[in-house]
Amino acid sequence: MNISIVVTQEEHYKYAQEICDTIESSALLRGTGIAKRTPEYIQKKMEKKDAVIALDKGKFAGFCYIESWQDSNYVAHSGLIVHPDYRNLGLAKKIKSFVFDYSLKKYPNAKVFGITTGLAVMKINSDLGYKPVPFSELTTDPSFWNGCKTCTNYEILKSKDNKMCLCTGMLYDPKEKPKDPPKHPFNVRIWNRLKEIKAALFLEKK
């Protein structure tokens, strides 16, 4: 396989529907919450060059896009997805690293953040230098949190006044330190246990 990762252009608009379908089917398979996006929304991200795509000789292999808030003081990477045919090859990490470096160049003054329930994404973020933070350190822009309305866990977020959810908030501040591997390696077993405890506490109070 000869997979290339590039910033999106007009020739990539045709993949928008497949990208949406792959994101949705993956979320259903994992049983996790996810903010749904339309092909039109994905195409707009492509038009603004706020997205990257991975292709294997013209076949869709993976995707991720950039969101920005509060006058581009905060950016996040959303919709990270790898086609089922290309999973377990380390492609997700390559896409994430590519879009991370690209967003630092395009938005040099922005803090990069994300919220996720996926342990694989947490590990990738941790390797890039993100750190876990409370939601209070993330963007306060209502449009970001409104994007969570289509997530299956939105009622939990709403009940906690956008301060907590099953997701974990992670932040990279370029002014704080350079992009180095974290001093304390990501421990999947510990994070999985914390995730289970969090879910038990929130779900029993619903």
What is the CATH superfamily?
Gcn5-related N-acetyltransferase (GNAT)
CATH architecture: 3-Layer(aba) Sandwich
What global shape is seen? globular
State the secondary-structure class: alpha+beta
Radius of gyration: 17 Å
Tally of DSSP helical segments: 7
Share in β-strands = 15-25%
Return residue spans where pLDDT drops below 50 for at least 5 consecutive residues.
none
How many strands appear in the DSSP assignment?
7
For the record, the count of structural domains works out to: 1
What does this structure look like?
The protein is of the alpha+beta class and 206 residues long. The protein is 38% helix and 22% strand. The chain has a single domain (3-202), classed as Aminopeptidase, CATH 3.40.630. A 7-stranded mixed beta sheet has the order 1-2-3-4-5-7-6, sandwiched between helices. The mean pLDDT is 87.
Short structural summary:
With 206 residues, this protein is of the alpha+beta class. It has helices at residues 16-30, 39-47, 91-106, 119-128, 142-146, 154-159, 188-204, and strands spanning 3-7, 51-56, 59-69, 74-82, 111-116, 131-133, 168-172.
Give structural attributes.
7 helices; acyltransferase activity, transferring groups other than amino-acyl groups; seven-stranded mixed β-sheet; alpha+beta; 22% strand; Acyl_CoA_acyltransferase; 206 residues; globular; Aminopeptidase; N-acetyltransferase
